[in-house]
Amino acid sequence: MSEHHRPHDPDASRLADRAQMDPRRRLVYLTFSRTVLVVGTLAAVGVAWTQPTQTHSQLLWLGPLLVLGFLLAEHLTIDVDIRQVGWAISFTEIPLVLGLLTAPFEVVLAAHLVAGVGSQLVRRLTSNLVYNVGVMCLEIAGPFAVYALATEVLPDGAPRWTAAVLGTLASSLISVALAVTALNILRGEPRLPAALRLAAHTLVVGLLNTSVGVVGYEVAVSAPWGWALDVLVVAALVALYRGYYGLLREQRDLETLSDVSLSVARSGQRVAGKPGNLLDGALAEADTDEWQKIADRIREQLSAKRVVLRLRLDPVAPVRTLVAGKPLPEDAPPSRDDPILQLPGSQVRYFRSLDAADDVREALAQRAAHEALVVPLRGSNQLLGAVEAHDRLSRWRGFGRSDVQLLRTLASHLATAMDNRRLLARLRHDAYHDPLTGLLNRPGFREAAVDRLRRHAGSMVLRIDLDVLSAVGDALGHSWGDRMVIAAGGRLREALGSEVPLARLEGGTFAALLVDCDEEEGRRIAEQLHQELAAPYPVDRLSVEADAVVGYVQVPVEPADDGDADADVDTLLQWADVALRAARNAGDTVRGYVPSMGQIFLRRFQLVTQFRQALDTGQVRVHYQPKVALPGREVLGVEALVRWVHPEFGRLDPDEFVPAVEATGLVDALTSFVMDNALAKVRGWLDRGLRLSAAVNLSVRNLADESFPDRVAEALRRHDVPPRLLTFELTESGVMADPERALPVLRRLHALGVVLAVDDFGTGYSSLAYLRQLPVDEVKIDKSFVLGMGTDLGDMAVVRSIVELGHSLGLTVVAEGVEEDAARDQLVEMGCDVAQGYLISRPLSEDRFEAWLRARTVRARGRRDETVLTLVR
Fold first, then answer.
1. Which residues contact 817 (CB under 8 A, 6 or more apart)?
2. GGDEF domain spans which residues (predicted)?
């Protein structure tokens, strides 16, 4: 079996078609083809002129027999792909060596031409006919010339088949040399080492083929009934060929299946890898190339004139058509009206123009095809596309059973791979997008921003926070809050356009990246976005008023020191959030980031991270501010207040670090610390015969903790303190932030026997209904009203109303912020029960408070033989 590469083979046709994209190579190839034809014709004429005239009585049947032999050799070939180049392993040497031994040159040449040209005409491969005719002439003229020369050179007595073997091997080498030259012109390969290896392989296989032919000839002419033995050998060779070809075909089919599945998977990863890709069905250029390679590979394996891939990567996207091989005619029918593409089920359908219905025959004619294999690509309950293969090239009888089986398996693998591709794309899309609004989420924004920050210099990151969402959710339900978020996202998208990366980070917080944007333009856009979001939102039959705050930061020209673009995006978002919080604290709607803002929040971050260590090392201490009864001035107890002396920042205001501690979840540790210190102090006073209570402030997080009452009960048991000597002070806003969770906790605390007091009363909801639903024992008048009583009649009226309201509900009324004697006297006149403030004492450390007790109070025996402390008048 010799190895030949002929441009009329399907793979060579593909090479020639692609060579049209390079006109210079195509021109050189055409010149080379004509040269081969001329040289082949001259060589044939020259050999015919030098051959002696022979007469053979067997020519009437020898000529047709050689034609049949060459036809069988052309038909029984093994196609092998070597680096995407097709090689045909054929048996051409067998009829050639028999022709050298039995027939004159003209007969062998005519038989070869009739078989070769006839095969191409039947296969409708005429584009390289000029080159192929020249090659055929040289493949016969060369062996006869070598045969004649060897006959003259070899010594007398040498067998004739020796010269025939040399001539036949010369034909194989001529064919390989011409094919290598043609490939080098068309593609610039193979190189010399590969060409030499190919020539060596050709000689080995050609020698085997030639030996079979010579042995068959000698057996036929020397032994009685030798032709019958030759028939058996030929039958064995055919069986061997079919078995080998079958194994080779199965191997190539498996390789094709693997390559196609991997190509689709790689394509899906590339298409879905970007967060901005919304799986809209539009193939990227790189993705199109990958699918084109898949179509080419299917065409090569099926040895088809054309393969058409029709792909629908998204249910709403149009069908994308890719063609491998000969282009489709311009008048090919549309997919929706094509009878060939009406594909129920998932089986391969085979159409032939010879026996097809009229509409199918017309559809094949419009494709310029005589036969077609068509199979649908079906995924999870949906049609993903179809594969068409037109006109088998390397076999006369068209597509066979193995082709149908391969296409069926290919379609199954391709559909599964496409389904997985769609699933992977959807998973990647969901990983980078917010499910509620369809906008990018935080990881998606990070990826999109990194990509643009690398390509643009002047950029700006905006952080937008939509207000009143919690109020809408509490009043109308979370679904209405979600509708407002969706509406806000739509307004932002419409205002910014589709090209601007826009993300919903969490809740009602959004982020956007503006590229090629200076400070002035960025502020203008930020103010525009605020106006868009601040417009009323129609909710059912209501119109909800909302507001928004925008913080923005200009992207530095220089990248981060570590070159980590992801860290840059996170830092920019953090800075924009700092600007947003600064705007909210200042009552602004839009504010840009300046570095000084970062120092404030950096200090806050340091305080939060160091707070736990401060508790353990004694930096945080509890101070006590006394509370006295009015008008008798008896010391009833203290309010426990936390103080922190920082080794770097010095004495810190509680208003600076307590909100930060509450926001980070460390408030439980703070509350437990203050409560344990206060209870230990109360226990010590009890041991000295003093019955003083301690008040501890509660956070909204404490009220949301269902286990908090259990920890309070355990602390009371551990310190052996009566529950009535522990007071918890809570703010109105803290309770009403989440009343459904706060009220059960308050009821359990009240059931323990501890005293509950409403702090800063008058600044929040301050309604009779509010007080009636809370299990409280005291109300504390906010110090802003107490301080203003002396100059503002309105503040005095508020204080008087709170006292009367508290007493009407049976509650103790405490006034905080008492700093003057006049204010104390007014409170006594109003009937206020307890006073607290600088007039009595500032908050004092433990030691100084003990000294204050000794210096400012006297002991007296109470009505129940209890020791009480009274302020010295």
1. 782, 783, 784, 786, 787, 836, 837
2. 457-596
Condensed to tens digits (0 to 9), the pLDDT of residues 100-115 reads 888 888 888 888 888 8
Asked if residues 116 and 108 have their Cβ atoms less than 8 Å apart, the reply is no
Residue-averaged pLDDT of the chain: 79
CA angle 67, 213, 43 (to 5 degrees): 55
In this structure, the strands spanning 320-325 and 304-311 are antiparallel
- Tokens 């950096």 label which residue? 602
| Cα gap 277→389, rounded to integer Å | 32
Beta bridge partners of 778: 757, 812
Residues 6+ apart with CB under 8 A from 187: 15, 19, 85
The per-residue pLDDT for range 190-243, each reduced to its tens digit, is: 667 777 777 777 777 778 788 888 887 878 777 777 778 777 877 787 777 677
> Measuring CA to CA, which residue among 336, 337, 344 is closest to residue 318?
336
Taking alpha carbons only, the member of 539, 250, 286 closest to residue 406 is: 250
State how far the Cα of 426 lies from the Cα of 199, in Å rounded to an integer: 52
CA angle, 475 as apex, 469 and 481 as ends, to 5°? Answer: 35
Q: Which of 788, 775, 716, 785 is nearest to 744 (CA)?
A: 775
pTM of the predicted model as reported, rounded to 2 decimal places:
0.49
Q: Which domains does the chain possess? A: 2-222 (1.10.1760), 253-432 (3.30.450.40), 445-593 (3.30.70.270), 606-871 (3.20.20.450)
Measured between alpha carbons, how far is 501 from 513 in angstroms, rounded to an integer?
A: 6
Distance, CA of 424 to CA of 264 (rounded, Å)? 12
Q: Measure the CA dihedral 480/485/488/494, to 10°.
A: -120
Give the gyration radius of the chain's Cα atoms.
Answer: 48
- Give the H/E segment covering residue 423: helix 401-432
- Pair of tokens at residue 688: 């000295």
Secondary structure class of 330 (helix, strand, coil) = coil
Look up tokens 């025996």; give the residue: 861
Task: Say which amino acid occupies 679.
Answer: L
